[in-house]
Structure formats: C-alpha cells, structure tokens
Amino acid sequence: MDEQIHDIGGIRIRVIKGDITEQECCAVVNAANNHLWMGSGVAGALKKAGGADIEREALEKGPIEIGSVVETKAGHLSAKWVIHAAVMGQKLQTSAEIVSRATSNALRLSERLGVKRIALPALGTGVGALSMEDCARAMRSGVESVLPLKSIEEIIFVLFGPRAFNAFKSAF
Predict the structure, then answer these.
(1) Strand pairing class (27-33; 117-120)
(2) Most buried residue among 91, 92, 96, 101 by CB atoms closer than 10 A?
(3) Which residues pair with 71 in a beta bridge?
(4) Closest residue by Cα to residue 121 from 63, 171, 46, 49
(5) Are 102 and 123 spatial neighbours (Cβ–Cβ below 8 Å)?
(6) Tell me, what DSSP letter sits at residue 148?
(7) What does the alpha-carbon distance between residue 12 and residue 154 come to, in Å, rounded to a whole number?
(8) Is 39 buried (19+), middle (13-18) or exposed (0-12) by CB count in 10 A?
(9) Please, what's the b/e burial string for 130-156 (b: 16 or more CB within 10 A of its CB; e: otherwise)?
(10) Which region holds residue 128: left if phi is over 0, alpha if psi is between -120 and 50, else beta?
C-alpha cells in the first residue's frame, strides 16, 4: 500500500491509497449531500459495506446546512461512527471553502465523540467536481484550522487511485 506519514500540530497524518470501508478507525467520513441520501461513490461504498441502516439514520437527521456534519452509527463497518459531511446541495456543486469547512466540522464533531482515529476521503471531488489539488489543499486547511485537537491522535486520508494520492502527498 502506498503511504505517506506526517505530523501536524502533534497529530499523525497518514495519506494512503486504499478503501475507506476497510479502515480500522473510530470514525469514517462520508462525502454527503445536504439531504444525506447515499448514492454512489464513497457514500455508496459505505452503505454497501456498512448496511442500509446508515442511510436510514442519516435521512432522519437531514436535511442539514451545506458544510455541516452529522453522525450516525456505522453498521457493519469496523468504525463506530460515520460522519456525514455535507459538501454539496441539490445542485451537486461544491467549492474549496465548503470542503474546508466540512473538514473542520467533521473533526470538531469527532472531538466531541471522543474519536482517536478518523478516516476521510477526498471530499467533493466526485459528483461535486472539485479538482483533486484544490480538495487536498482545502482539507489540509480544514485540519489546520481546528488545531490543537485533544482526542484525535490520527487522521487518515484514504484515497482511491494514484491521482488523488499524489495530490494529497503534494498538499501535505
């Protein structure tokens, strides 16, 4: 597995190529729309691996403001929580500012939940069409904006494919 490890503000940051549904962590982040229905991409993979109860619980909590987050149980995933980060609305468009805010909010919620290890995908790069490079810079900015963190010890950026992996390697 390709991997790069960094330390930012006392937090271990791992950039890896892999499958977010297979990560051993306390929470995984879902790249969500603000109505919280889980279609394809990361959301579809999490729903397939973790079960339909994840989406059912998410829908009960939506809709939410773009850039906001909510948590659900993680079903059959090894994680305890799925944090749904609304990076786009019904127009299916996003921006680096929204991705940065959603990243920050996901980490703040993780702190409140006592999460030690959290896995995040590249937010907003699928249907939201944000470039991988802009996404990586925005997510790094989102991480830096919430430092220092008390409970989170490790943030894992789990990326699908070499283009995403290389963009995040460059950003970190």
Answers:
(1) parallel
(2) 101
(3) 83
(4) 46
(5) yes
(6) S
(7) 5
(8) middle
(9) bebbbbbbbbbbbbeebeebeebebbb
(10) alpha
Provide the whole-model pTM. 0.95
Record: fold of 3-171: Leucine Aminopeptidase, subunit E; domain 1 (3.40.220)
What phi and psi values does residue 88 have, to the nearest 5 degrees? -160, 160
84-133, pLDDT tens digit by residue?
999 998 887 899 999 999 999 999 999 999 999 999 999 999 888 899 99
Q: Where are the beta strands (DSSP E) in 65-159?
A: 69-73, 81-88, 117-120, 154-159
The two tokens of residue 38 are 């889980």
d(CA 106, CA 142): 9
In the block, which residue shows the tokens 């805010």?
A: 101
